[in-house]
Amino acid sequence: MIKHIVCFKLKDNSPANCEKAKEVLLGMRGNVDLLRGIEVHIDQLHSARSYDVILEVLLDDWKALDAYQNDPYHCSVVKTHMHAVREASIAMDFEIE
């Protein structure tokens, strides 16, 4: 299994905007068949080094991760929204047992 994690720092990290980002990200559930699991959380600490929203996705393998990156729903809905509202993002991908 592959875990794909993305942390987003939003341009406007108001509670409403964080909730909207969470809703958009969770919209992949049922729309992106490659997903084996998805979690989205909103930061509670709000420190200077905090990111606002975290996405954690489970996929079968590296090939599935590549396909996920080009999935039509992921690209047209999720990436479009998140690229518009993010100030910065960081990602990490790794194998889990």
Write structural notes for this entry.
The protein is an alpha+beta fold. It has one domain (2-95): 2-Layer Sandwich (Alpha-Beta Plaits), CATH 3.30.70. 35% of the residues lie in helices and 33% in strands. It is built from three helices and four strands. Strands 2-3-1-4 form a four-stranded antiparallel beta sheet. Helix 1 (15-26) runs antiparallel to helix 3 (72-85). It starts with a strand and ends with a strand. The relative contact order is 0.32.
Give start-end ranges of low-pLDDT stretches: none
- The CATH class designation is Alpha Beta
* Proportion of helical residues: 25-40%
Q: Order of helices and strands, N to C?
A: EHEEHHE
Strand order of the largest sheet: 2-3-1-4
Coarse shape: globular
> What gyration radius follows from the Cα positions, in whole Å?
13 Å
* Named CATH topology: Alpha-Beta Plaits
Can you count the helices?
3
**Percent of residues in β-strands:** 25-35%
* Mean pLDDT figure: 97
Kindly report how far apart the N and C termini lie: 6 Å
E-strand count: 4
Please name the CATH architecture.
Answer: 2-Layer Sandwich
